[in-house]
Write a structure and sequence with these properties.
about 55% helix, 4 helices, elongated, about 110 residues, two-stranded antiparallel ribbon
Length: about 110
């Protein structure tokens, strides 16, 4: 697969880079913000609010829409990866129970 910048990269490498880029953003209020990498936990704010006060209805609707969109896109990426693996890999079931007669029967059943 040829990437948009002209380099010849594999499909999995391109998909992995796209997923990493998407994971580097977090949804905040009405939009996306780049996530800062920190090795420390954030200190608690000390403010106690109900869950309804954390996200207003409009922001909650936007968050649900974005999460559903990510879920749909991830399903599509998983399907593309499975199609790619169908063409580059093979699999045959190998039973290893220790009983050669049983192993042969199970392997014939699984074909």
């Amino acid at each position: 697969m040829v990437a948009s910048n002209g380099s010849n990269r594999g499909f999995l490498a391109t998909a992995r880079d796209a997923l990493r880029a998407a994971a580097s953003f977090i949804i905040v209020g009405a939009g996306l913000r780049r996530r800062e990498r920190k090795n420390k936990r954030q200190a608690p704010t000390g403010l106690l609010r109900s869950e309804d006060a954390e996200l207003l209805p409009n922001d909650r609707r936007k968050l649900l829409s974005a999460s559903r969109d990510l879920h749909r896109n991830f399903s599509f990426a998983a399907w593309m990866i499975r199609r790619h693996l169908d063409y580059v890999s093979s699999f045959s079931f190998q039973c290893r129970s220790g009983n050669p007669a049983l192993d042969g029967q199970v392997e014939r059943l699984m074909r």
